[in-house]
């Protein structure tokens, strides 16, 4: 199956090398903004002189005092646990992925291709002329979750178990994988109703990305929805900052209200994405019974697949901008 062109409302599949995306985001930050290998050990809130700072205790003993804490710390988020969100649950499926490198070029067209078999879905995406990203999801891991820390065993197990059913080209791509890029993990998600009734924020503390809404990868919206979070949250906090001329953490129209508005705007959107991703994966990885084939091949792919992919077309709104100061009369005269 090939995914090319666009789907409903002009939306379509887009792909980018993760390294390039992270570099583009990092380039927009001031130097020394990012600190690596900083794990949160504890979170403490205080009220002092009318303000409500957040004290973040890091694993190495470092203390950080912040006006706002936005937890983007992944599926097993410490911030999400502090807020009281339920832990993510396993979907009953696992996924392997990696990147193959062809020094002389792979010669493939730049389109997404997917292969589906009973209980199995795999595919590849050429990232450029020499690198190809591949993925494989199945109803159970080849030999337990211990594959995550052993890339050579992971590659061997995937090939031993699935080479006979996968297209030869995909087998060749897996064989040429850079072992350092291989990864295997159970697919997890947070129950969608926890998005609607759970505590997604408390005062000036909230979560975004996988920390808020871990989902299965079947709609390809995990990273995209995290970027949506950033735009929506930035819009609300930015408007609050402009209105108050500073980042106010107490009183009326404070950053806590901006965060509440962010949560209200995002929770219905991510609830739908979590639900749609799970159901999409369940249908595509379904069994071989006649009713499941009918549900997958006739109803899902022919009637709903294009509409589901159009979910990706979403307007996050525009980030606020500050107009440059107007020159005074003397400047005009000069």
TrEMBL record:
Answer whether the UniProt record assigns the keyword Protease to this protein.
Answer: no
The alphabetical list of record keywords is: Monooxygenase, Oxidoreductase
Task: Tell me the domain of life.
Answer: Eukaryota
What Pfam families does the database record attribute to this sequence?
A: FAD_binding_3 (PF01494)
Any one Gene Ontology MF annotation carried by this entry is: monooxygenase activity
**In this protein, which residues make up the domain named FAD-binding?**
21-239
Q: Which InterPro entries match?
A: FAD-bd, FAD/NAD-bd_sf, MOase
Q: Which PANTHER family match?
A: FAD/NAD(P)-BINDING OXIDOREDUCTASE FAMILY PROTEIN, OS04G0423100 PROTEIN
Q: Belongs to which family?
A: Belongs to the 3-hydroxybenzoate 6-hydroxylase family.
Q: What is this protein called?
A: Zeaxanthin epoxidase
In which organism is this protein found?
Phellodendron amurense
């Amino acid at each position: 199956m090939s995914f090319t062109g666009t789907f409903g409302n002009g939306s379509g599949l887009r792909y980018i090398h993760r390294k390039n995306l992270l570099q583009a985001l990092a380039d927009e930050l001031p130097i020394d903004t990012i600190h690596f290998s900083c794990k949160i050990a504890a979170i403490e809130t205080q009220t002092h002189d009318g303000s409500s700072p957040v004290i973040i205790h890091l694993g190495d003993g470092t203390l950080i005092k912040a006006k706002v804490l936005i937890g983007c710390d992944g599926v097993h988020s410490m911030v999400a646990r502090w807020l009281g969100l339920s832990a993510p649950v396993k979907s009953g499926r696992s996924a392997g992925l990696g990147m193959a490198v062809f020094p002389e070029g792979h010669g493939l067209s730049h389109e997404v291709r997917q292969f589906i078999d009973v209980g199995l879905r795999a595919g590849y995406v050429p990232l450029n002329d020499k690198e190809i990203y591949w993925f494989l999801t199945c109803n159970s891991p080849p030999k337990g979750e211990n594959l995550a820390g052993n890339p050579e065993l992971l590659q061997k197990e995937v090939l031993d178990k699935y080479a006979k059913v996968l297209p030869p080209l995909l087998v060749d791509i897996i064989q040429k994988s850079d072992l350092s890029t291989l990864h295997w993990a159970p697919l997890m998600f947070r129950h969608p109703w926890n998005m609607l009734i759970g505590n997604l924020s408390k005062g000036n503390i909230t979560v975004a990305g996988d920390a808020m809404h871990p989902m299965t990868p079947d709609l390809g919206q995990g990273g995209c929805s995290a970027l949506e979070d950033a735009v929506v949250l930035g819009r609300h906090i930015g408007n609050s900052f402009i209105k108050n001329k500073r980042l106010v953490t107490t009183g009326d129209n404070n950053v806590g209200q901006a965060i509440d508005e962010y949560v209200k705007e995002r929770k219905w959107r991510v609830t739908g994405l979590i639900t749609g991703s799970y159901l999409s994966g369940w249908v595509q990885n379904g069994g071989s019974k006649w009713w499941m084939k009918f549900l997958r091949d006739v109803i899902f792919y022919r009637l709903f697949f294009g509409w589901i992919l159009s979910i990706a077309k979403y307007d996050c709104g525009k980030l606020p901008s500050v107009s440059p100061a107007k020159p005074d009369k003397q400047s005009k005269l000069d």
